[in-house]
Structure of Nucleotide-sugar transporter family protein:
Amino acid sequence: MTAKGGANGAGSPMSGANGRLFTVGLITSWYSSNIGVLLLNKYLLSNYGFKYPIFLTMCHMTACSLLSYIAIAWFKFVPLQTVRSRVQFFKISALSLVFCGSVVSGNISLRYLPVSFNQAVGATTPFFTAVFAYLMTVKREAWITYITLIPVVTGVIIASGGEPSFHLFGFIMCIGATAARALKTVLQGILLSSEGEKLNSMNLLLYMAPVAVVLLLPATLIMEENVVGKTIQLAREDFKIIWYLLFNSCLAYFVNLTNFLVTKHTSPLTLQVLGNAKGAVAVVVSVLIFRNPVTVTGMLGYSITVAGVVLYSEAKKRNK
């Protein structure tokens, strides 16, 4: 992103430098928040022993509700887009349900799987997106695009075989989270396709997050017995858990905010490249922090999957 020069060219290099510095800062914030929330989720759910993924997700959604409202209604960060009909609200609620399923399943999987393997499975999102788009819309990709999905799936199969910390239930949850994430993308394109119903990602989060809290509250109370009492008990023993939950929840909102800003201030190609690299960075950082064992087979599988994702992106771009 570079600033446009005016009549006086002397200020342009400085403006351009400031623009580049802003973009670099934005990308760094995007990477830090994405990887940070992933690692903190892993630490809380697996290492710290906070065994309540639904409650944790509800904390995230509560923070997203409050901070979205503050950013849009108070700070006018983006113009407020209103929900125009009951039908549109039900569509947003359906998206929120799928979104909840994705986040909760992903958090559950982190209790059982290392971040490195979680990211390898998560990289298969394009495969599920292509499958759902094929089944739910009339949209068909070129045959070469579907062929590029073969290494995406093959890589995960290889990585699964070479994963020393493989856990079947965790793997199923991770696949479910990845599929739900892809389903949300396809559903969003179908349900909010008309110009009057389209919402930018910040406004969509503003409406989805409170619905998610309403859905998750009974789920956590029923499925995670006495979760509030146990969290209060934990806080009495170690008050740091409250700070962890607050910071983690705010970071979850920051992921959405930086994702919106990076999308706005970079090109689609840059975003694609950065997105592919982000998973690899998360894997390296998580292995360094958690010291989970990594095999050559596992890394080979993950590399094949990432290569397949890159090829898939390239094939889609060329066949547009």
